[in-house]
């Protein structure tokens, strides 16, 4: 299924109570401990009348005490929030017309100074008009300049990142060119050679179009450099120019998050799923206060197959034979023989002796064999149906005459030692945390959806072991285990994992054969079966019409017969639906990618699953740079900017992947690692990759802890700059941390239903709004943890939202 509405990740209100403004007034400092609203019926208060043709002033009114203040409030007078106890009494500010002033005086209130006269407002308005007129004039002057500058250029630099990786220095550039869909031109990037140097002095590099599913996304490319450039410039083929500052990607801060004596490096070899599960059981046994092993609710279909054989050579003569019993439960003991009777005019007969099946083939008057594949298959199924079923090859008519075959064993072709269970296999998670009751922020890490990816499971167990072994001595680790509810599943797909280790190293999928009779169900297809567990989930799936998954039972990205058809996938769904689950890491290999949603699009048109909001995307980027910096600390391996971002922006569409289900269905911040350089690298390399990506996984836990502890409210400012559009200005909101901004342009109170400040486009950062000069702008921001700027409460009469004008700053 697909959902168009996102969960309200950024809309959580803090638990603070909503005290009304009027009550705050009565309960102010002057009345503390005594405030109680007057009994209005008993007091029968005088209610002020306001004449429609009068303007109001703000005046001071002094009351003797709380009783008189209550009486004043009961008149219905318009008071602002100002309440000051003084020696002369309580001074309040009333917004009143001359008629109301006279009435208040008649009632005996002491009316004092006029603080703000109606005429003052008129003065402000004429000042405002003059300012706007001046800005309009300024704008016209700027316009000519801007039309030649980057804002009006047909090329826009979206990223310029300098980084080191290993011993290399690299400059990675991404830019969008307005003609990029139709023109195949590369773009040339000119670099300076450091602060204060000329553009071009650092050399040039070209960047090429990134086109996916026929849609131009942007130009990108990286080149080795010998010095860190400060600025770059791109001149497009039309002569337009864009310049940008170069940022440093993943600089490593001096302070390590790992304290002195921090222990790591616990894995010493590749581990099969059986060994992975044994390892987490040992860990949980060693730290019973901190960890437990949880058997997930769905067992796999098992590392097991029927015993099979295909007899015969050419397609028309082939007979496929499958045991009814699983191979390890007797199927492997069955043999089949196709015997030439050695005599003329013999009928086709089948004899079963124990597990030995002997087919005596029919012959003609000359003694030649006449039985066809179809006849033999039918006879086997009819006469030996207690042991086997037989069929012609992949739907062929089977008209070819078979050749005799000596007794041949059927086999499940499974080579794992007997210690590897052939039964439906439980999938185990290790749950780590001091408080494993669902009350803490949940984090899920899971590996080996793809069987042949042998390093990611090691990252999972290494991380579990770091958490447990450092708990007693490392304060940071102790804090993670106090704050979080950590679920680590080292192998989601143990059947495929075992198959990859013992039988077929390139196995990607699980072992379940969903091919229909007449299709690729025979022994020769045994390495082609299975469901791609990372395509069988529920959001933006093949079944929803999205790209990047196969409907073929032998396709390597086979999505399965239906969403969540596979037990492996139902286990992930079960984990993700835990209400406290907020963060996840899906560990894959390879390619050194780091990705998040959207992970799928529909074709034609490359229609993407909904993109995260600007705030969500900036949270993804912010957390990602922390995680990737931790990875880089190990041996200075930089996951590149070009391989960081939404799956479908940097890699390809993967309909029905797990990250998308966790994000769209459950609102979990879901990332995907593509660890290392190959599926099964040399041990030395596998070991290094394990160490570096475990660094990253531990940093994800720190991101989760900081999210959990985040009580700091975001702040935001309005930036107004000249616009190329006459009579308008360019407006942006700047936030102190990743935060959603909701705004209005019509003077109304902003709420969660107001316009959400958005991204300018794929990988472009915040949009620039073009609004008429003088527009009144109201807004507030809310961070990922739900903290709202200035304690504003959009759903009640709180007024502490931000206010600004679309006017250029003066001076
Ligand atoms: Zn994978």
TrEMBL record:
Signal peptide feature range: 1-32
Organism: Micromonospora humidisoli
Protein name in UniProt: Chitobiase/beta-hexosaminidase C-terminal domain-containing protein
Name of a matching Pfam family: Peptidase_M14
PROSITE patterns: PEPTIDASE_M14 (PS52035)
Taxonomic superkingdom: Bacteria
Annotated ranges, domain Peptidase M14: 391-704
Residues annotated as catalytic: 674 (proton donor/acceptor)
InterPro entries: GH29D-like_dom, Peptidase_M14
Record has Acetylation as a keyword: no
Cofactor: Zn(2+)
Family membership noted in the UniProt record: Belongs to the peptidase M14 family.
UniProt cross-references to Gene3D superfamilies, sorted A to Z: Zn peptidases
Keyword Oxidoreductase appears in the UniProt entry: no
Keywords: Hydrolase, Metalloprotease, Protease, Signal, Zinc
């Amino acid at each position: 299924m697909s959902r168009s509405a996102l969960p309200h990740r950024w809309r959580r209100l803090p638990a603070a109570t909503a005290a009304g403004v009027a009550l705050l007034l009565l309960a102010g400092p002057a009345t503390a401990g005594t405030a109680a609203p007057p009994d209005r019926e008993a007091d029968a208060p005088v209610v002020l009348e306001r004449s429609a043709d009068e303007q109001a002033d703000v005046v001071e009114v002094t009351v003797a005490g709380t009783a008189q203040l209550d009486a004043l409030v009961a008149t219905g007078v318009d008071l602002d929030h100002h309440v000051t106890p003084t020696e002369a009494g309580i001074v309040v500010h009333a917004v009143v017309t001359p008629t109301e002033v006279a009435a208040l005086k008649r009632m005996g209130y002491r009316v004092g100074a006029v603080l703000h006269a109606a005429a003052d407002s008129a003065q402000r308005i004429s000042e405002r008009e003059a300012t706007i007129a001046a800005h309009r004039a300024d704008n016209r002057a700027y316009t000519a300049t801007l039309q030649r500058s980057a804002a009006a250029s047909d090329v826009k630099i979206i990223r310029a990142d300098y980084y080191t990786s290993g011993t290399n220095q690299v400059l990675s550039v991404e830019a969008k060119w307005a003609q990029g869909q139709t023109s195949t031109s590369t773009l040339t990037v000119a670099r300076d050679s450091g602060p204060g140097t000329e553009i071009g002095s650092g050399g040039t590099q070209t960047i090429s179009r990134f086109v996916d599913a026929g849609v131009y996304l942007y130009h990108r490319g990286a080149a080795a450099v010998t010095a860190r450039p400060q600025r770059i410039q791109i001149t497009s083929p039309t002569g337009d120019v864009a310049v940008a500052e170069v940022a440093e990607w993943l600089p490593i801060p001096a302070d390590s998050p790992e304290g002195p004596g921090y222990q790591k490096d616990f894995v010493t070899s590749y581990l099969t799923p059986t060994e992975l599960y044994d390892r987490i059981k040992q860990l949980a046994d060693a730290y019973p206060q901190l960890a437990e092993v949880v058997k997930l609710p769905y067992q796999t279909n098992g590392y097991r197959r029927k015993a099979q054989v295909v007899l015969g050579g050419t397609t028309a003569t082939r007979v496929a034979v499958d045991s009814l019993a699983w191979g390890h439960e007797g199927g492997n003991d069955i043999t089949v023989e196709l015997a030439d009777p050695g005599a003329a005019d013999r009928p086709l007969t089948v004899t079963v002796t124990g597990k030995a099946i002997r087919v005596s083939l029919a012959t003609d008057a000359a003694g030649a064999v006449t039985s066809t594949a179809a006849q033999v298959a039918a006879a086997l199924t009819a006469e030996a149906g207690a042991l086997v079923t037989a069929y012609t090859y992949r739907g062929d008519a089977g008209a070819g005459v078979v050749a005799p075959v000596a007794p041949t064993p059927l086999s499940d072709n499974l080579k794992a030692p007997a210690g590897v269970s052939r039964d439906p296999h439980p999938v185990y998670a290790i749950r780590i945390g001091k408080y494993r009751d669902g009350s803490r922020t949940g984090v899920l890490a899971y590996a080996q959806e793809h069987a042949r990816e042998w390093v990611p499971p090691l990252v999972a167990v290494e991380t579990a072991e770091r958490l447990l072994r450092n708990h007693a001595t490392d304060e940071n680790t102790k804090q993670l285990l106090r704050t979080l509810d950590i679920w680590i599943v080292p192998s989601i797909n143990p059947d495929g994992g075992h198959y990859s280790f013992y039988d077929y190293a390139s196995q990607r999928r699980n072992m379940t054969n969903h091919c229909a009779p007449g299709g690729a169900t025979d022994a020769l297809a045994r390495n082609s079966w299975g469901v791609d567990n990372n395509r069988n989930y529920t959001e933006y799936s093949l079944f929803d019409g999205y790209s990047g998954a196969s409907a073929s039972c032998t396709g390597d990205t086979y999505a399965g017969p239906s969403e969540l058809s596979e037990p492996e996938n139902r286990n992930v769904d079960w984990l993700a639906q835990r209400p406290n689950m907020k963060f996840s890491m899906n560990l894959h290999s390879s390619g050194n990618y780091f990705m998040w949603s959207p992970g799928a699009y529909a074709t034609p048109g490359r229609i993407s699953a909904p993109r995260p909001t600007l705030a969500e995307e900036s949270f993804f980027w912010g957390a990602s740079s922390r995680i990737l910096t931790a990875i880089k600390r190990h041996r200075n391996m930089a996951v590149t900017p070009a391989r960081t971002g939404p799956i479908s922006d940097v890699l390809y569409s993967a309909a029905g992947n797990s990250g998308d289900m966790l994000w769209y269905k459950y609102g979990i911040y879901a990332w995907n690692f593509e660890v290392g350089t190959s599926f099964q690298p040399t041990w030395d390399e596998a070991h290094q990759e394990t160490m570096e990506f475990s660094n990253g996984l531990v940093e994800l836990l720190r991101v989760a802890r900081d999210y959990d502890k985040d009580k700091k409210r975001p702040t935001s400012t309005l930036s107004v700059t000249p616009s190329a559009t006459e009579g308008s200005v360019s407006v942006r909101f700047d936030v102190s941390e990743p935060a959603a901004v909701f705004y209005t342009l019509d003077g109304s109170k902003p709420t969660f239903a107001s316009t959400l400040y958005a991204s300018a486009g794929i990988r472009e950062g915040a949009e620039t709004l073009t609004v008429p000069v003088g527009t009144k702008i109201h807004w507030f921001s809310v961070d990922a943890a739900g903290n709202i700027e200035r304690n504003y409460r959009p759903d009640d009469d709180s007024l502490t939202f931000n206010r600004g004008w679309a006017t250029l700053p003066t001076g």
